[in-house]
Specification:
The structure holds 2 protein chains of 2 kinds. By secondary structure, chain A is of the alpha/beta class. Helices cover 53% and strands 13% of the residues of chain A. The chains are: A alpha/beta, B alpha/beta. The interface between A and B is medium-sized, with 37 and 29 residues.
C-alpha cells in the first residue's frame, strides 16, 4: 500500500474513533518527545537545541514503531515550548544539565500578586512581554520563535508523506495553568483562597487572548486538532468550589471556540480528573478526544461519557519504565476489553518516558495491533 | 464544647486562625495547648481529605496555615514540653528536582509532630544513608515526579542495605508516577498514594516500632 493510501486509511480510523463508530483496527498513537531521541540514539541536548533534528528524529522513531499517528507534534525547541506553557525556567540538557539528562521545570515564584492586577488592566500579551524575560533569555526565545513560525506548517505534510497522521499541533490551556507555573504552584493555590476576585479578574481578561493564540497556533500547525492542556487544574488537585469557579468555565469556552473553528480539542488531562468526568457531557458530542495519563479512572469515563466522547490513552509511564512486555500486553488487552472497541485511540498515558524500555514500547504497539483488531 | 481554633483551622479560615492564636498568646494561654488545638484541626483536615471532602489544594492551604501557626508558637515552646512523635528523613531522589509533593508531605508530617529531616531535591543515596545514620530516623520518604528517579530510588534502598541499616528503616515512596509496581521495582516497603497517606504510614510504622 502506498503511503498516501496508508495515511488515508489511518486518518479514517481516527475520525471514526472520534465519531464513536466501529473500526477494523483500533488506531495507535505515539507520544514520546524524550523517548524518540533516546530510542534513536540522539543525545537529549541535541534534541533540545536543534529543532530541525528534533522533529526529524521523532519521525524516524514513529516510522520504526509503525504507529498510525502521533498524538502531538512539536515543531520547535522542546524546553522553549515548555517555558511557554508553564511560564517557568526550564533546566535543559546541554545547558544547565548534563548532555543526556532529562529537562526539568525549575518552578519558582516569579509572578507576583500585583501581576493579576496588571493582567486585568493591560491584558495577557502585555504580561507575557513583561514576564518571559525573567524566565528565558529574550534573544534565545526570539530565535526559537522564529524557527517555530517559519516551520510550523511542515510537520503535518511531512508525516503524511510517511503515512502517519498528526492528531494535534499546538497547545492551549486555561489561564489557571500558566498562572500556576508563573506564581509557583503553592503560591498560586494560596491565591485562590486568599484573593479569588483578583485572580478571576485576571483570568477573565486573559482568556480571549489565550483562545485567539491557541486557534492561531493550531491553524499554523495544520493538524486536525490541538491540545487543550490540563495538569495542575486536575480534580484531585483542586477543591470543588475552586474548580467550579477557576477551571471548568474556562475549559468550556476554549473548547467551544475551537469547535467553532473546526479544530478538534484534544483534552490532554494529566493527573486525576475522575471526580468531574460528568462535566465532560457539557462539551459538544463527538468533537473532542479526552487524552488520559493513567491516573483518571478511564473505565468511569467510558461509563459516564463514552456515548459522547472518544478517549486516547492510557498506558502509564511507570509501566513503560519499570514493567515488563507482559505487563504492557495485559494492560492493553484489558483496556481494549473495557474501554474499546469504539471511541478508543490506544496510546501511552502522556509521554512515553525517556527511560522506557524499548521492548516495552514495542510490546505496546504489537499488543495494540493484536488486541485492537476487530473480531 | 468544640475548640473554635480547631474548627477554624479545619475550615481553612486563615485570618481567623492567626487572629485566635495571637489573641490566646496575648492572653497568656499555654503555647503548647494552642499548638495542640491546631494539630487537632490538622487531624480533621486529614480525615476530610480521606473522605474526599478535601483535596490537594485544601491540604496545601492547611499546611500553610499551620506553618504560620508553628512560626508563632515554636519559639515559645520548650523542646522538652513537646517531644516529637518520631523522626523521618525525606527528600526527592537523585535526578529529580521537583519538590511540591515532598514539601506537602513535610508540612503534614511536621503538623503531626514528627521531626523531619528534609534533604531537599536531587539527593544522592549516600546522603540519605548519612542522615539516617546520624539521626537514627526509622522512616525514609523518597519522592519523585519523574520515572528516571525510579532507578535512584532503587539505588538508595540498596545503599541502606549496604550500610547495614535496611532492617532498621522503613522506606516509603511517593510522587506522580509511582505505583505498586514501583514499590516492587525499588525494593521500598510501601507507597503513599498521596501526602496524607505518608502521614498514615509513619503513624503505623512508628507506633509499631515503639
Amino acid at each position: 500500500m502506498n503511503k498516501e493510501a496508508l495515511y488515508q486509511e489511518r486518518l479514517a480510523r481516527i475520525k471514526k474513533a472520534i465519531n464513536l463508530e466501529p473500526v477494523d483496527q483500533i488506531p495507535v498513537a505515539f507520544l514520546g518527545p524524550a523517548f524518540a531521541p533516546r530510542y534513536m540514539g540522539m543525545p537529549l541536548a541535541k534534541f533540545c537545541e536543534d529543532a530541525e533534528a528534533a522533529f526529524q528524529v521523532t519521525l524516524e522513531a514513529v516510522k520504526r514503531l509503525d504507529v498510525d499517528a502521533v498524538n502531538s507534534l512539536v515543531i520547535g525547541r522542546f524546553p522553549v515550548v515548555l517555558t511557554l506553557i508553564w511560564l517557568s525556567h526550564i533546566r535543559a540538557p546541554g545547558r544547565e544539565l548534563p548532555p543526556d539528562a532529562l529537562w526539568q521545570v525549575d518552578e519558582a515564584e516569579v509572578m507576583t500578586p500585583e501581576d493579576y492586577d496588571f493582567i486585568a488592566e493591560h491584558g495577557w500579551q502585555a504580561f507575557l512581554n513583561k514576564h518571559l524575560p525573567k524566565v528565558i533569555d529574550p534573544a534565545y526565545l526570539g530565535e526559537s520563535l522564529d524557527f517555530m513560525m517559519a516551520n510550523a506548517s511542515r510537520g503535518v505534510p511531512l508525516f503524511r508523506e510517511n503515512g502517519c497522521v498528526v492528531i494535534a499541533s499546538g497547545a492551549v490551556s486555561i489561564p489557571f495553568e500558566p498562572m500556576c507555573g508563573a506564581r509557583s504552584m503553592s503560591k498560586f493555590f494560596f491565591d485562590l483562597y486568599r484573593m479569588p476576585d483578583r485572580v478571576q479578574a485576571a483570568m477573565d481578561r486573559a482568556l480571549p487572548e489565550i483562545i485567539a493564540g491557541g486557534i492561531g497556533l493550531a491553524k499554523a500547525g495544520g493538524a486536525m486538532g490541538t491540545w487543550v492542556g490540563g495538569w495542575r487544574a486536575a480534580s484531585a488537585m483542586v477543591a470543588p468550589k475552586l474548580w467550579d469557579r477557576f477551571v471548568w468555565p474556562y475549559y468550556l469556552k476554549i473548547v467551544e471556540a475551537l469547535v467553532a473553528e473546526d479544530i478538534t480539542p484534544v483534552l490532554h488531562f494529566d493527573q486525576d480528573w475522575t471526580r468531574d468526568l460528568g462535566k465532560l457531557r457539557e462539551l459538544p458530542a463527538k468533537k473532542c478526544i479526552l487524552n488520559l495519563d493513567g491516573m483518571t479512572d478511564i473505565r468511569k469515563f467510558k461509563e459516564l461519557v463514552g456515548d459522547r466522547m472518544a478517549v486516547m490513552g492510557d498506558v502509564p509511564a511507570s509501566l513503560f519504565a519499570a514493567g515488563t512486555p507482559d505487563d504492557i500486553r495485559k494492560y492493553v488487552r484489558d483496556l481494549v476489553r473495557d474501554v474499546g472497541p469504539t471511541g478508543l485511540i490506544l496510546s501511552s498515558g502522556c509521554d512515553i518516558p525517556v527511560n522506557a524500555r524499548p521492548e516495552n514500547v514495542e510490546a505496546f504497539v504489537a499488543a495494540s495491533r493484536e488486541y485492537g483488531k476487530a473480531a | 464544647m468544640e475548640d473554635q481554633l480547631t474548627v477554624a483551622l479545619a475550615n481553612l479560615e486563615e485570618s481567623n486562625v492567626l487572629a485566635q492564636v495571637n489573641e490566646r498568646l496575648k492572653a497568656g494561654h499555654d503555647p503548647l495547648a494552642i499548638l495542640k488545638a491546631c494539630q487537632e484541626g490538622m487531624i480533621r483536615v486529614g480525615k476530610r481529605y480521606e473522605t474526599c471532602e478535601y483535596f490537594i489544594s485544601d491540604l496545601m492551604m492547611a499546611g500553610e496555615i499551620f506553618r504560620q501557626v508553628a512560626d508563632l508558637l515554636t519559639p515559645k515552646i520548650k523542646r522538652s514540653d513537646a517531644p516529637s512523635r518520631g523522626k523521618v528523613v525525606i527528600g526527592t531522589a537523585k535526578g529529580d528536582i521537583h519538590d511540591i509533593g515532598k514539601n506537602l508531605v513535610v508540612a503534614l508530617l511536621k503538623a503531626a509532630n514528627y521531626e523531619v529531616y528534609d534533604l531537599g531535591v536531587d539527593v544522592p543515596p549516600e546522603r540519605f544513608v548519612e542522615v539516617l545514620k546520624e539521626s537514627g530516623a526509622p522512616v525514609l520518604g523518597l519522592s519523585a515526579l519523574l520515572t528516571i528517579a525510579f532507578d535512584t530510588m532503587k539505588q538508595t534502598v540498596a545503599a541502606l542495605d549496604t550500610a547495614g541499616i535496611r532492617k532498621q528503616v522503613k522506606v516509603m515512596i511517593g510522587g506522580g508516577p509511582t505505583t505498586e509496581e514501583t514499590v516492587a521495582y525499588t525494593g521500598a516497603d510501601a507507597m503513599g498514594r498521596d501526602a496524607q497517606s505518608a502521614v498514615t504510614l509513619c503513624n503505623q510504622w512508628i507506633r509499631a516500632s515503639v
